[in-house]
Amino acid sequence: MASTNNQLEATELFEGQSLLYMHMFGFLKSMALKWAIQLNIPDIIYNHGKPITLSDLVSTLQVPISKQSLVERLMRFLAHNGIFVIHEKGENDDDDDQAYALTPASKLLSKSCCKDHCLTPMVLMSTDPILMGKFHQLGDWICGEIPTLYEAALGSTVWEFLEGKPEYLSLFNQAMASDSQMVNLALKNCSKVFEGIDSIVDVGGGTGTTARIICEAFPKLKCVVYDLPQVVANLSSACDNLSYVGGDMFKSIPQADAIMLKWILHDWTDEICIKILKTCKESVSSNGKKGKVIIMDIIINEEDDEKDMTETKLCLDLIMMGINGKERTGKEWKHLFVEAGFKDYKIFPLFENRSLIEAYP
Ligand SMILES: C[S@@+](CC[C@H](N)C(=O)[O-])C[C@H]1O[C@@H](n2cnc3c(N)ncnc32)[C@H](O)[C@@H]1O
Ligand SMILES: C/C=C/c1ccc(O)c(OC)c1
């Protein structure tokens, strides 16, 4: 609402300016994170065994002395944003009065600390210049005829792009695996979901991280990872109850008591999701069995989620926009299940931004 009071109008404009500055510089949060990873700072601090002073950090990094203050300023920025924390000793007034320590966020970027669930590959993929660069063409793409941003900017769909570039395919698979490791920590909250079933197919299961976690937790459960041939080629199973099958989920899906879809349906349009869900329903209903489909995905819930959580989910929605996928509200998920002919479904919290949905044919 426009204000009639000049003073208030100026205040509003200043607030508007402030918001714009915050947003236009938002990319620097990604860039500073990438800088910390490229210089291996999370591992350096972890291996140091205690908070590290600026001079120790600079000498480990072998940064020229003339650039010492740049390290200090980047660390100040990252600490301001919760990626590191600055411990003040307050004894003397020199540079070494302060020391940098890890926070939960930067622990997740240290391979030495969080070997199993290090999120570094996800950060490197998200900040890759080519993958990030396509967002410069959002405007042109939305006004043009080309169906996906990937095709508009990179000349092919995301899956074709990855198939043609082994180094990107490997980065993508590692990024997905790093996200999937979190399932390990959340499984105890939803172990009931996997009890009482003899076989499960993880459709689009990537290199098998989630399936491996489930196989280890439920040694009697027979688990198949089903993904594109180029993804599962040369993978061999570490446990007896896990196997890899290459194929195309649009042509067929192996039969099982349960189908798992983790971060699959958000990659696709409603129309395609309904097709996938119908095929899954056939697979788990064969042999007269009453199976189920287990979905691990995002549910947008602006009412109940914290603002920051919703923001992350809406960012992922824009990333999915680039491949014609989308993040869905509870109502939009329900629409998919109804249209695909499922009788009922149940939602469980999984971890942070992810829910587990059990859908029954
Ligand atoms: C976003 S990733 C999710 C991977 C894994 N479920 C996870 O959460 O870590 C989507 C997966 O779907 C696979 N995929 C894409 N098209 C497919 C198709 N037509 N048939 C089978 N898998 C497909 C991709 O190769 C990729 O591994
Ligand atoms: C940076 C995150 C990328 C990403 C996350 C989940 C997905 O399903 C995906 O599919 C193309 C990409």
Automatic annotation (TrEMBL):
Residues making up the signal peptide according to the UniProt record: none
Its EC number(s): 2.1.1.150
Pathway(s) of this molecule: Phytoalexin biosynthesis; medicarpin biosynthesis
Domain called O-methyltransferase dimerisation: residue spans: 23-111
Active site, per annotation: 266 (proton acceptor)
Official protein name in the record: isoflavone 7-O-methyltransferase
Sequence ranges assigned to domain O-methyltransferase C-terminal in this UniProt record: 135-343
Alphabetical GO biological process terms: isoflavonoid biosynthetic process; methylation
GO molecular function, one term: protein dimerization activity
Subunit structure of this chain's protein: Homodimer.
Entry-linked InterPro entries: COMT-like (IPR016461), COMT_C (IPR001077), COMT_dimerisation (IPR012967), SAM-dependent_MTases_sf (IPR029063), WH-like_DNA-bd_sf (IPR036388), WH_DNA-bd_sf (IPR036390)
Catalytic activity from the UniProt record: a 7-hydroxyisoflavone + S-adenosyl-L-methionine = a 7-methoxyisoflavone + S-adenosyl-L-homocysteine + H(+)
Function: Transfers a methyl group to 7-hydroxyls of the isoflavones daidzein, genistein and 6,7,4'-trihydroxyisoflavone. Can also methylate (+)6a-hydroxymaackiain with lower efficiency.
UniProt keyword list: Methyltransferase, S-adenosyl-L-methionine, Transferase
